[in-house]
Amino acid sequence: MINEFEHQENVALFTRANGKISGLTYVGENYYRDAKELLEKYHQMNRNLHKKKQEITGKISIGIPPLILSIIFPKILPELILNNPQIEFEVKELGAYSLKSELLLGNVNFATLLYPEHISSKIIESFEIYRSELSVFCSPNHHLAQKKSVTWQDLHKEKIVTFDKTFMIYQHLKESFERYNIHPDIVYESASWDFLYYTAKSNSDILTILPLATGEYYQDPHLVSVKIEDPVLWRVTLCRLKKSNYSNAENYIFDEILKVFSLL
Fold it and tell me: Which listed CATH number (3.40.309.10, 3.40.630.30, 4.10.400.10, 3.40.190.290) goes with 131-234?
């Protein structure tokens, strides 16, 4: 095998005396040294591959809008923190519109935003982790409560409480209102989704618009959801800035979040 390799590569790796190998040639010594380095790198690759997560330390800052935090992260986030005590977590609770700026400024490692993020794919990596749609929520005594579905035109001049301008839902609703040329009576804008929830629940002439998943996770006989025809999709994405290098903690936690949502 050795002779065949030397003949094939047209090199002499070993010195020979009386038909026996007696040592390495200059070329053979270089080849041996390179092979040792390659083997060490191979073994290091395997050690890194099976490195225990306890060895991964650091600080991770995640931006999550309050509504997204309440609907899709109440079980996932605590488990992530408890299972990784060696990593320091910071969670910024802001509207997705504000978190977009935080992400671009590098103030958070990751942010959960809504698709479309209106950020170039050359700048961020974006992965959809959850999908629902926006729906009307109102008291059972509201005049729209008994409808199977409503059109956007049905919302013209309706009294509505909604998210403020720091939330991407606000931007999506504004675009839909303009597209369908309707003018709801916006009673109040808030950063608190539970305020919107309880306002609609407590007032029979006021409605709000929230993700349909809100009603699935917080079932309440005193608040009904009515689907909107041609709804605004609520597509939650996990985003991070594109960089040439990420810390071990960044890569590990980002992959863990994606893995958890892929199993849902």
Answer: 3.40.190.290
| Paired tokens of 262 | 């892929």
Per DSSP, 232 falls in state P
Residue 126 is inside which H or E element, if any? strand 124-138
CB pairs under 8 A, 24+ apart, for 169-175? 169/67, 169/96, 169/114, 169/134, 169/209, 169/234, 170/95, 170/97, 171/97, 172/114, 172/134, 172/232, 173/134, 173/209, 173/232
Return the number of other C-beta atoms located less than 10 Å from residue 99's C-beta. Answer: 28
Residues composing the chain: 264
Share of the chain above pLDDT 90, in %: 75
What pTM did the predictor assign?
0.76
CATH code of 53-129+238-262, in short, is 3.40.190.10
Q: Any idea where the domains of the chain sit in the sequence?
A: 2-49, 53-129+238-262, 131-234
**CB distance 226 to 149 below 8 Å:** yes
Burial of 12 (0-12, 13-18, 19+ CB in 10 A): middle
Spans in the chain with pLDDT lower than 50 = none
Can you tell me which residue has the tokens 């409605």?
A: 207
